[in-house]
Amino acid sequence: MATDQPSVLLVEDEPAQREVLRYNLEADGFSVTAAENGEEALLLVDEAAPDLIVLDWMLPNVSGIEVCRQLKTRSDTRSVPIIMLSARSEEVDRVRGLETGADDYVIKPYSVIELMARIRAQLRRTRPSVVGQRLEYEDIILDAETHRVTRDSRELKLGPTEFRLLSTFMEKPGRVWSREQLLDRVWGRDIYVDTRTVDVHIGRLRKALCKHGGDDPLRTVRGAGYALG
Ligand code: CA
C-alpha cells in the first residue's frame, strides 16, 4: 500500500550488507524493496519506480554502473536519485569519470548514519513532503511533519488521501498528473482502485481547500488529468 513512506530500492549482492541496510531503512520509515543483482533491479524498477535507489557498484553480471547508466538515459527513470556504493575511492573516481549520472557516491565501509543522511538529502530535493519538509504554494502551507495544512493562515481539515494528494501536487506545482500517476503515487500500484475514485478525492480536496474562500487552485486538464496552478 502506498503511504507517505518514501520507497527505496536497495541493490546489493551481499546478503549481510543488504539486510543491515534494509533493517535501518525500514526502522527509519522507508518502504524497501531489494534486488541482489542488476537484472533484478531493472525488472523491479519497471514494475514500480522507487523514490530513490541505493546501488552497489560491484554486482554480478550487469554492474551497478551499467544499471545506473541505463536508468539515467530513460526518461521515466532519469529523475530517480541514485546513490552508488563503492568499495574503494578509486572506483568512485572512475564512476565520476564515466559520467553515469549517479547523484551521490558513498565509499564502503560506510557509516549507516552517513548513508541515511545522504539518502535524506537526495529526497529533500525530489520528494520534500516525505522527509518532513514544509511545502508552500501561494497561500497554502503543508507541513509534512505535523500533517497540518493551512490556507491564508487558517487550518484546513483534510482526510489522509486528500493530504497525500495535496502533497503530491505541492511537490511539483504546475505539473500535470494523470489519474493513473496519482493512483500510483497516492494509493499504490498494488491496490486496485478505479480511476474515478481519484476524481472523488480531488473533489473533496477542492472543497477543503476552498472552505474559507479563495480560488480553486486545482486545474482540471482535459484528457490529461490534474495540476496545481
Ligand atoms: Ca557487491
TrEMBL record:
Signal peptide segment: none
InterPro entries tied to this protein: CheY-like_superfamily, OmpR/PhoB-type_DNA-bd, Sig_transdc_resp-reg_C-effctor, Sig_transdc_resp-reg_PhoB, Sig_transdc_resp-reg_receiver, WalR-like, WH-like_DNA-bd_sf
Record keywords, A-Z: Activator, Cytoplasm, DNA-binding, Phosphate transport, Phosphoprotein, Transcription, Transcription regulation, Transport, Two-component regulatory system
Limits of the OmpR/PhoB-type domain: 132-229
Pfam families: Response_reg, Trans_reg_C
4-aspartylphosphate found at: 56
GO biological process, one term: regulation of DNA-templated transcription
UniProt cross-references to Gene3D superfamilies, sorted A to Z: 3.40.50.2300, 6.10.250.690, Winged helix-like DNA-binding domain superfamily/Winged helix DNA-binding domain
Protein location: Cytoplasm
Domain Response regulatory: 7-123
Single GO MF descriptor: phosphorelay response regulator activity
Hydrolase among keywords: no
DNA-binding region, residue range(s): 132-229
The keyword DNA-binding is annotated on this UniProt entry: yes
GO cellular component: cytosol; protein-DNA complex
Major localization listed first in the record, in broad terms: cytoplasm
Function per UniProt: This protein is a positive regulator for the phosphate regulon. Transcription of this operon is positively regulated by PhoB and PhoR when phosphate is limited.
Protein name: Phosphate regulon transcriptional regulatory protein PhoB
The species this protein was found in: Roseovarius pacificus
